[in-house]
Specification:
mainly alpha, 0% strand
Length: 69
């Protein structure tokens, strides 16, 4: 059965309640989201740092990868 809200305040309260419920019941979901945000920030920083570094050839990269494994 669909719920109809009479005004914006009821809709806002329903969203707020749903978000609070998710925060309480799905802490793992929130943790995953935060981890993704941190990873994205780290990748962005690495890309920015890499843009300012000297260029290397593809062969040099694969040679380095092979020697570290």
């Amino acid at each position: 059965m669909a719920t109809v809200f009479d005004d914006d305040e009821q809709l806002k309260a329903a969203f707020k309640s749903a978000i609070i419920e998710v925060l309480h019941e799905r802490k793992d979901l929130i943790r995953d989201i935060i981890e993704e945000i941190i990873e994205d920030a780290a990748f962005s920083r690495a890309i920015d740092e890499g843009a300012d570094s000297p260029k290397v050839s593809r062969d040099d990269v694969f040679e380095l990868l092979e020697t570290t494994n």
